């Protein structure tokens, strides 16, 4: 089940989970299995565990989950403080398991490192919704929902390619994220795959930052010194993009277009104003956390998703990485994170 856009996708999923219409068109009696809707039903306690909200996107994840849970009278949300320390986050999840919550929503700081605690929950009869950073075993979760890192890079590359397709010997640079994360490699792989469709474009430099404002500024300054002229920049993350834009302004450079990543409100506001190098951002929507709460509630109530013939929720849901430009920014501004 692929969401067409972040906003439309989240809306579609919410509509699906909350549909009051019967599924008669399915032709197999799926309506008898029960579809989750807005009406109060069986009470569900959802345990929510994520990493420390030391980043704009992660903070938005927490807000999306909490706000979504408040929407339902039958949902109680048990949230942990969040931690980037694997051992500490495992301890927090084990506390939720011991409290015998009905369902767990887990965004692990490190999916591989937290696989065992996911398995422990599942073996205890607590279904797990694995949010974004995937566990190493499918047995550690009932459903996975998250973004498409490869698709994020792919769509950024295609957007840049279309902007530069008529420019001879075009040059692009990439400001990546944390290189030891699989998601960073996936974003780069998608970006490189897209650029192969444009033989006139060459990626001349790539530097990895740390998803922070400070690292974005420092690394971008290095890129600008190393490359006296280029035509486009893809920055993996809008938070580190704040620093990157500072370095660009300090260097007095404006000969290129910039594409961001994740979809911050600040980036979207700059795109709308259209008075800087910032021309687009590729979404990695934190609305996935709201959808994870919908999934957890449906699991806890033993219900399915409206609009599908199956009785059960899917095993995985991948969100689409839409490209936000001046032409569609008004549509996406409401889901931009701060």
Please describe what this structure looks like.
The protein is α/β, with parallel strands linked by helices and 338 residues long. It has two domains: 6-147 and 286-319, Response regulator (Rossmann fold), CATH 3.40.50; 149-283, Rossmann fold, CATH 3.40.50. The chain has helices spanning 6-18, 56-70, 86-98, 115-123, 149-164, 182-195, 213-226, 238-251, 265-273, 288-300, 329-332; strands spanning 44-49, 75-79, 103-106, 128-131, 143-146, 170-176, 201-208, 232-235, 257-262, 278-283, 316-318, 323-324. The strands form two sheets. Strands 2-1-3-4-5-11 form a six-stranded parallel beta sheet, sandwiched between helices. A six-stranded mixed beta sheet has the order 7-6-8-9-10-12, sandwiched between helices. Strand 1 (44-49), helix 2 (56-70) and strand 2 (75-79) form a beta-alpha-beta unit. Helix 2 runs parallel beside helix 10. The radius of gyration is 21 Å and the shape is elongated. It starts with 5 loop residues before the first helix and ends in a 6-residue tail after the last helix.
Task: Give a quick precis of the structure.
By secondary structure, this protein is α/β, with parallel strands linked by helices. Helix content is 40%, strand content 17%. It has 2 domains: 6-147 and 286-319, Response regulator (Rossmann fold); 149-283, 3-Layer(aba) Sandwich (Rossmann fold), CATH 3.40.50.2300.
N-to-C span: 28 Å
Report the order of strands and helices: HEHEHEHEEHEHEHEHEHEHEEH
Portion in beta strands: 15-25%
Name the helicity range: 25-40%
Shape: elongated
CATH class of the largest domain: Alpha Beta
Strand order of the largest sheet: 2-1-3-4-5-11
Q: Into how many domains do the coordinates divide?
A: 2
Q: Give the low-confidence spans.
A: 1-33
Structural class call reads: alpha/beta
- Taking all Cα atoms into account, the compactness measure Rg is 21 Å
The biggest beta sheet is recorded as: 6 strands, parallel
Roughly what is the average pLDDT, rounded to an integer?
90
Number of separate strands:
12
CATH superfamily of the largest domain: Response regulator
């Amino acid at each position: 089940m692929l969401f067409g856009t972040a906003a439309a996708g989240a809306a579609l999923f919410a509509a699906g989970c909350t549909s009051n219409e019967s599924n008669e068109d399915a032709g197999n009696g799926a309506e008898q299995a029960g579809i989750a809707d807005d009406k109060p039903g069986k009470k569900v306690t959802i345990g929510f565990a994520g990493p420390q909200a030391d980043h704009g996107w992660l903070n938005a994840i927490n807000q999306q989950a909490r706000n979504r849970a408040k929407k339902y009278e039958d949902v109680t949300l048990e949230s942990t403080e969040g931690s980037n320390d694997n051992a500490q986050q495992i301890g927090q999840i084990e506390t939720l398991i011991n409290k015998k919550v009905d369902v767990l929503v887990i965004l692990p700081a490190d999916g591989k490192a937290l696989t065992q605690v996911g398995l422990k929950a599942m073996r205890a009869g607590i279904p797990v919704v694995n949010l974004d950073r995937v566990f190493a075993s499918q047995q550690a979760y009932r459903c996975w929902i998250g973004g498409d890192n490869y698709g994020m890079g792919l769509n950024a590359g295609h957007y840049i390619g279309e902007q530069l397709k008529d420019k001879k010997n075009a040059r692009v640079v990439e400001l990546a994220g944390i290189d030891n994360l699989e998601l960073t490699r996936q974003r780069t792989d998608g970006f490189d795959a897209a650029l192969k469709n444009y033989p006139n474009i060459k990626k001349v430099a790539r530097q990895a930052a740390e998803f922070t404002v400070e690292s974005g500024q420092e690394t971008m300054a290095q890129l600008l010194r190393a490359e006296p002229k280029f035509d486009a920049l893809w920055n993996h993350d809008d938070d580190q993009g704040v620093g990157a834009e500072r370095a660009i302004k300090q260097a007095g450079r404006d000969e290129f277009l910039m594409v961001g990543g994740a979809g911050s409100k600040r980036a979207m506001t700059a795109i709308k104003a259209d008075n800087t190098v910032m021309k687009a951002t590729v979404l990695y929507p934190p609305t996935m956390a709201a959808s994870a709460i919908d999934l957890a509630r449906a699991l806890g109530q033993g219900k399915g998703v409206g609009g599908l013939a199956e009785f059960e929720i899917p095993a995985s849901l991948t969100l689409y990485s839409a490209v936000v430009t001046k032409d569609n920014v008004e549509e996406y501004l409401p889901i931009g994170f701060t």
